[in-house]
Amino acid sequence: MLHFVAAAAVGTAGGLLIDTIISGGSVVKTIRRGYEGYFRNGSDDAATLIGISTTNVFREVSYNLNIIPPNLNPGFESCKTLDECKQHSKSGIGFNTPIQITPISNTNGKNCRELTCLADGCEDAYTFPKDDIKTHSCPFGTNYKVTFCPSRDTTPQETTTAGPSLTGRP
Known about the structure:
InterPro entries: Osmotin/thaumatin-like_sf, Thaumatin. This is Thaumatin-like protein. With about 170 residues, the chain is mainly beta. It has one domain: Thaumatin (Sandwich). The chain contains one helix and twelve strands, in the order βββββββαβββββ. It has one helix spanning about 80-85; strands spanning about 1-5, 10-15, 15-20, 25-30, 35-40, 50-55, 60-65, 100-105, 115, 125, 135-140, 145-150. It has a five-stranded mixed β-sheet, with no helix packed on it. The longest helix has 6 residues, at about 80-85. It is globular. The two termini are about 15 Å apart.
């Protein structure tokens, strides 16, 4: 289960489904096995992304933050730094909104842990296409809190979620 919380008014886009979250509001999404996609603030491709995948064979949920500028110019699809990617993309922008994703349970401090991106160039996000150490995973059944525009105090606030999530049921 993804519990989206907004400190400012935002819209999320995951596939064809779009929700608007008012400032201080929240939306809960249940993601089933076989899902692969992104959530973002707004519909522009040039946006901070939260990638979620439940398609792997290890019964895990893979997740990441991504600030790679979209629409890279031909020949630069494998740029090696954020600056190079910015210089060779249509928009030069990949970051638009601070985002944080926090596993509520099953955290181990290593691969199943909170990711935060408060500014362009943040350490927890993909900044170029092969920045693969930025993908993290947690077991199915983990609940997550996704916060758009988190405060700079990244201490997770108490949240309550109920029911199973990401159970792997078709």
